[in-house]
Write a structure and sequence with these properties.
With 183 residues, the protein is mainly β. The chain has no helices and 14 strands. It has strands at residues 6-10, 13-19, 24-28, 37-42, 45-50, 60-66, 71-76, 78-96, 99-115, 118-135, 138-152, 156-160, 164-170, 174-177. The protein starts with 5 loop residues before the first strand and ends in a 6-residue tail after the last strand.
Length: 183
C-alpha cells in the first residue's frame, strides 16, 4: 500500500489509528462482508468506503498504524480513535454522526463539524485551535494559546486549557471552559 498522511471514511466503521509506528492496515469482520469494504490510497489520502450496502450487528473493525497523520475526514457514522499523534498541524472534518477521539500533541488543530457528530480532542494538546461547528455537534478541545470558535445552531464546544478565546455563536450554541473537576 502507498504511504498516506490523511484518512477519509464513508460509512459506519470502527477505526483505531495508532501513530508513530510503521504503516499497517488490518480489517476485521465477517468473511463474507470483507469484500464490501474498499481501501485505496490516492494523493496521500487513505480512502475507506462501503462498496455496497450490508447489515451487521457489529461494525467492521479497521486497525491502522502510521508514522504520521495530518487529517481525518469522516462521513457517516461509526467511531475513529487516533492515538499518539505528534505533528505540527491536524485537521478533523466530521460530517453526519461519527464519534472521533484524538490524543497526542499538535501545534495547530482545525475542526470542522457538521451534523450530529462528537469530536473529542481534549486529550490532543494543541497550541492553537480553530473550531467551526454547524448542527448539533459536540466538540471537546484543548488549546493552550488561542481558540477560535464559530458555531451555527445548537452545537456545544467545551474547551480545556487557558487560551485566548474568540467566539462567534449564531443560535443556541455554547462555548464553555470545562470544569477542572469534571475532566
Amino acid at each position: 500500500m502507498s504511504s498516506f498522511t490523511s484518512i477519509s471514511t464513508e460509512g459506519a466503521f470502527e477505526i483505531d489509528v495508532v501513530c508513530q509506528q510503521a504503516q499497517t492496515l488490518e480489517i476485521e469482520g465477517d468473511d463474507n462482508l470483507l469484500p464490501m469494504v474498499s481501501t485505496e490510497v490516492s494523493n496521500g489520502v487513505l480512502r475507506i468506503n462501503n462498496v455496497g450496502s450490508y447489515s451487521t450487528r457489529t461494525p467492521m473493525k479497521i486497525k491502522i498504524s502510521v508514522p504520521n497523520i495530518e487529517g481525518i475526514s469522516a462521513n457517516g457514522a461509526g467511531t475513529i480513535d487516533v492515538s499518539r499523534l505528534k505533528n505540527d498541524k491536524f485537521d478533523i472534518d466530521s460530517n453526519g454522526a461519527p464519534t472521533i477521539r484524538v490524543s497526542g500533541e499538535t501545534k495547530e488543530l482545525e475542526i470542522d463539524a457538521n451534523g450530529a457528530g462528537k469530536v473529542d480532542a481534549h486529550k490532543l494538546r494543541a497550541s492553537r485551535a480553530e473550531v467551526d461547528s454547524k448542527g448539533v455537534a459536540k466538540v471537546e478541545v484543548f488549546a493552550s494559546d488561542v481558540l477560535n470558535v464559530t458555531i451555527s445552531g445548537p452545537s456545544q464546544v467545551i474547551y480545556d486549557g487557558d487560551p485566548e478565546v474568540n467566539q462567534t455563536v449564531n443560535g443556541p450554541g455554547s462555548v464553555k471552559q470545562r470544569d477542572p473537576g469534571g475532566a
